[in-house]
């Protein structure tokens, strides 16, 4: 009849053919789809709009996205017979993250230390451009096209000014090698860094300090034992807070080499029962603070 639409159903043989092809694709998703299966699958796509269930062994869902269907729970692309199915993207989460968060140019001070190395590695893994400002470039063996290693003195304002321009943020993981000896390393570096940042127009700064500055008897004991280092780091914090930058101060407890990157954070205080934290987690927090634009003008306690 003119104007009527004929509905054609699949025979048992056709259903069996498609079923076997679907099972084969389930076990080997990269196998070339045969031309006969393509013809039948295209037919199922047309018929399936009128009748969802053509057989107990075959069910057809509406198109999820262009030219893709699900048969027996197996994701099958309708492709030419001489092409392979695409491989599963194992880095999809990282790519989605990179699409959401902009790629930045990060300037890292103290990149040769144990925490600094973690910051460099994680920043590169997140897709950022990294400049490592170090005293001994030969100690950095990592090679990456997005990594630039510059030799310089972290207490020299002019050297920092030349290197720090055109960056989005500065991360300082600088620390003394001998915490029991008197030192002004952190104070002098903070003074030179903040002045260079103000002159260059770079505003975002995240620095590493210590949880021993928080009140509490255990922290008082630690501050007394490491009083030289605590005096220097407290002077560094005062300089960072007084220079009009978008600063964040991270205060972790005793650092370890454990293999985890999760952390708890609390603005203005140490997390409860937080006695240790992995260096990987410290690096993750400092990068998260920059990427997520959080904790501006805050001292943040972080712990396991």
3D structure, described in words:
With 304 residues, this protein is of the alpha/beta class. It has two domains: 12-77, no CATH class; 92-303, NAD(P)-binding Rossmann-like Domain (Rossmann fold, 3-Layer(aba) Sandwich). It is 37% helix and 20% strand. The chain is built from nine helices and 14 strands. The strands form four sheets. An eight-stranded mixed beta sheet has the order 7-6-5-8-9-10-14-12, with helices on both faces. The protein has a two-stranded antiparallel ribbon with strand order 1-2.
Radius of gyration: 29 Å
Give me the secondary-structure category: alpha/beta
Low-confidence stretches: 1-11, 14-38, 44-99
Helix content: 25-40%
Describe the oligomeric state of these chains in a short phrase: single chain
Any idea how many domains?
2
- The name of the CATH architecture of the largest domain is 3-Layer(aba) Sandwich
The sequence of SSEs as H and E is: HHEEEEHEHEEHEHEHHEEEEHE
Output the number of helix runs. 9
CATH superfamily of the largest domain: NAD(P)-binding Rossmann-like Domain
Let me know the number of strands: 14
As a percent range, the share of strand residues is: 15-25%
Largest sheet: 8 strands, mixed
What labels describe this entry?
disordered N terminus, 2 domains, eight-stranded mixed sheet, 304 residues, two-stranded antiparallel ribbon, alpha/beta, 14 strands, Rossmann fold, 37% helix
Q: What's the topology here?
A:
Layout: H1 12-27, H2 35-47, E1 53-55, E2 58-59, E3 68-71, E4 74-77, H3 92-100, E5 105-109, H4 114-125, E6 129-134, E7 147-151, H5 157-164, E8 169-172, H6 185-200, E9 204-208, H7 217-225, H8 227-241, E10 246-251, E11 254-256, E12 264-267, E13 276-278, H9 279-291, E14 298-303
Parallel strand pairs: 5-6, 5-8, 6-7, 8-9, 9-10, 10-14, 11-13
Antiparallel strand pairs: 1-2, 3-4, 12-14
Helix pairs in contact: 4-9, 5-6, 6-8, 7-8
């Amino acid at each position: 009849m003119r104007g009527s639409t004929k509905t054609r159903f699949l025979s048992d043989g056709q259903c069996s053919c498609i079923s076997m092809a679907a099972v084969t694709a389930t076990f080997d998703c990269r196998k070339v789809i045969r031309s006969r299966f393509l013809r039948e699958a295209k037919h199922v796509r047309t018929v399936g709009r009128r009748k969802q269930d053509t057989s107990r062994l075959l069910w057809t869902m509406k198109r999820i996205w262009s030219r893709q269907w699900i048969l027996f729970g197996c994701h099958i692309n309708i492709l030419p017979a001489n092409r392979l199915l695409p491989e599963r993207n194992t880095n999809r989460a990282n790519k989605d993250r990179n699409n959401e968060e902009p790629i930045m140019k990060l300037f890292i001070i103290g990149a040769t230390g144990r925490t600094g190395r973690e910051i460099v590695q994680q920043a590169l893994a997140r897709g950022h451009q990294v400049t490592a400002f170090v005293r001994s470039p030969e100690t950095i063996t990592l090679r990456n096209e997005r990594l630039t290693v510059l030799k310089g003195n972290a207490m020299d304002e002019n050297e920092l000014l030349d290197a720090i321009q055109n960056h989005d943020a500065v991360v300082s993981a600088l620390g003394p090698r001998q915490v029991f000896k008197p030192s002004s390393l952190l104070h002098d570096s903070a003074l030179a860094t903040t002045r260079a940042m103000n002159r260059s127009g770079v505003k975002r700064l995240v620095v590493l300090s210590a949880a021993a500055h928080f009140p509490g008897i255990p922290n008082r004991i630690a501050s007394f034992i490491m009083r030289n280092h605590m005096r220097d780091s407290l002077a560094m914090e005062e300089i960072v807070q007084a220079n009009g930058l978008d600063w964040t101060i991270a205060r972790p407890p005793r650092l370890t080499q454990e293999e985890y990157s999760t952390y708890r954070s609390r603005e203005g205080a140490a997390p409860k029962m937080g006695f240790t934290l992995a260096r990987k987690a410290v690096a993750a927090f400092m990068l998260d603070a920059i990427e997520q634009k959080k904790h501006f003008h805050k001292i943040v306690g972080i712990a396991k």
